[in-house]
Design brief:
3 helices; two-stranded antiparallel ribbon; YCII; four-stranded antiparallel β-sheet; YciI family protein
């Protein structure tokens, strides 16, 4: 199985009237429940609308994102599925529920971290 990041940009839901947001929340939670029931849900969240802090390799903290950054993530989901096509199908369900387009990206596998997690589960 492969994990995919499904995300949308900050502001992508600004077109939705406040009075419709409870329906959007209900629809999006229904998709999450469907993904949980299907065994593909890993994690997801909306991000608070705030500027990010950037921590450099020397520990210096600055406010971000950098001015050249035009878009920042407003929310995301991670699914663990057998194919890109399946990830796109989940993204389509999320897009309908959230009433905004979704971006899909494959996460890089990390066998070493997977081994660490399996070892931690044995404890």
């Amino acid at each position: 199985m492969t994990q995919y990041l499904i995300s949308f940009n900050d502001g992508a839901m600004d077109h939705i009237p406040d009075e419709d947001m409870p329906d959007v929340g209900k629809a999006s939670h229904a998709v999450v429940q469907e993904a949980v029931n299907a065994g593909v849900w890993v994690f997801g969240a909306g991000l608070e609308r705030q500027r990010a802090s950037v921590v450099a390799t020397d520990g210096m903290v600055t406010d971000g994102p950098y001015p050249e950054t035009k878009e920042v993530i407003g929310g995301f989901s991670v699914v663990d599925v057998a194919s890109r096509e399946e990830a796109l199908a989940w993204a389509a369900k999320i897009a309908v529920a959230c009433r905004c387009a979704q971006e899909v990206r494959e996460l890089m596998p990390d066998p070493e971290t997977d081994a660490m997690l399996r070892q931690a589960d044995r404890r």
